[in-house]
Amino acid sequence: MNVFIGISALLTLLVVAWVIRPLLIKQSDSAISSEKLNAEIHHNQLQVLEGDLARGIISQQDFETTRDELQLRLLDDTESFEQAATQNSTGFWTAPRMASAIGVSVPVLSLGLYMLLGAPMAINPPVARVNAEDQQITQMINTLAAKLQANPDNPQGWAMMARSYKVVGRFEEAKQAFERAGDYVKTNPDMLVDYAELLGVMAGNSFVGQPQMMVDEALRKNPEHPLGLMIAGVASYQNGDFPMAVMHWEKLLSLLPPESPDIEQVQANIADARSQAGLPAVASNMQPPVPAAAAAGMTPEMINQMVDRLAARLKENPGDLAGWARLARAYKVQGRLEEAAAAYAKTGNMLDTDPDLLTQYADTLAMRAKNLQGKPTELVNKALTIDPKHPMALMMAGQSAFQSGDYAKAIGHWQTALTVLPVNSPDVTPIKAEIADAMLKMSATGKP
């Protein structure tokens, strides 16, 4: 673009200079030179005439007549030059003024005509293309919005609208659209991760809290969701749970293709998290799979030490409710159920709003008691009060009803779970088998 403007300006200046140059040459110098030339011609003619008289070629009378004519002609020529000079020096449009007017008007008129008739945006094709694409995207969004206004009962349409708003940076409208999508978002791991990413960005790139819970739910539905693993690692890192961040990112690294441009960044993240956690570094070109409890150099002793350090920090800061939830999950993974149950109990008012935490607490108590009856069932029912379509809570409620012999209730919970789980979920087949088993028991006992 700069080259084009430079060349155009140079050509315009050359044209203006070529046009005004004759106007800037002083006319008076040309007139004086012509007058001298005529006087010189008159002098030569007069010398010739005097020579002819001396040689007797012409008479005295002819000499005088011809001399007078020459003098009159010279006088006429001199007067004409004086009149021309006088005429040139009078009037408003003198040569300098005319040159100035042309020098200003030609560039201005050229620029105006180009702006009117030309294509200024074509100077920079990428910008023109981006603007055209932005206009097209805006038109598509407006069209979709109009359709949803006419047919608001379209959760997939609202999810598409949310993603569109997110792409163009209209975050508040994207959040509202995600909320209008309702259960479609809660059952779709891609939508959960997209919504979590939006909330994190709106919170100043902080993924702690609700974004992390949404990503955890997405990873339960699809444990190998790449963006979900990335955000889960970021949330764990921001929470100070560096070993968990390492686990998420190393699992992500094992899923990335060798040519992925994200590998270098993920490896840098892992190295940083390992350093923060006091873990030994691994070779940067390794992409190790992550086992359930010990990922690439994380021995049980190391994990115990990290968990103990977290427990020590929480003793100094017992008001860190999210920290107690992390510690409870770590104890549960290690099989330290008593300590896990005690840590869950210290999560305070998080148990009033977090169905994921409630189901994890219930599962811990059920594993310890080897039964869902009692306190575990109370926690599961509380989770369903907060989120009636929580998949894990529905499955656990079905198991609780089955254990108590209420097969119809168990079947109802499991059938509801099937409506919210993705069709490719690994939980679908076991739930269908449990439903079939409950139906057989109903037939055998003759009671629901």
How would you characterize the overall build of this protein?
With 448 residues, the chain is an all-alpha fold. Among the domains are: 2-118, no CATH class; 353-448, Alpha Horseshoe (Serine Threonine Protein Phosphatase 5, Tetratricopeptide repeat). The protein has helices spanning 2-24, 27-54, 60-88, 95-117, 125-150, 155-167, 171-181, 183-186, 189-202, 210-221, 226-238, 242-255, 263-277, 300-316, 321-334, 337-345, 355-369, 375-386, 391-403, 407-420, 428-445. The longest helix has 29 residues, at 60-88. It is rod-shaped, with a radius of gyration of 47 Å. The two termini are 79 Å apart.
Task: Please give the structural blueprint.
Layout lengths: L1 H23 L2 H28 L5 H29 L6 H23 L7 H26 L4 H13 L3 H11 L1 H4 L2 H14 L7 H12 L4 H13 L3 H14 L7 H15 L22 H17 L4 H14 L2 H9 L9 H15 L5 H12 L4 H13 L3 H14 L7 H18 L3
Helix pairs in contact: 1-4, 2-3, 5-6, 6-7, 7-9, 9-10, 10-11, 11-12, 12-13, 14-15, 15-16, 15-17, 16-17, 17-18, 18-19, 19-20, 20-21
Short description:
The chain has about 450 residues and is mainly alpha-helical.
**What letter string, H or E per element, gives the SSE order?**
HHHHHHHHHHHHHHHHHHHHH
Instruction: Report low-confidence residues grouped into runs of 5 or more.
Output: 28-32, 81-90, 283-298
Shape descriptor reads rod-shaped
Work out the oligomeric state of the chains in this entry: single chain
Over all CA atoms, what is the radius of gyration? Answer: 47 Å
* Number of alpha- plus pi-helical segments: 21
Label the structural class: mainly alpha
The proportion of residues forming helix, as a percent range, comes to over 70%
> DSSP strand (E) fraction?
under 5%
Query: In this structure, how is the largest beta sheet organized?
Result: none
Overall residue-averaged pLDDT value: 77
Beginning-to-end CA distance, first to last residue? 79 Å
Kindly state the number of beta strands: 0
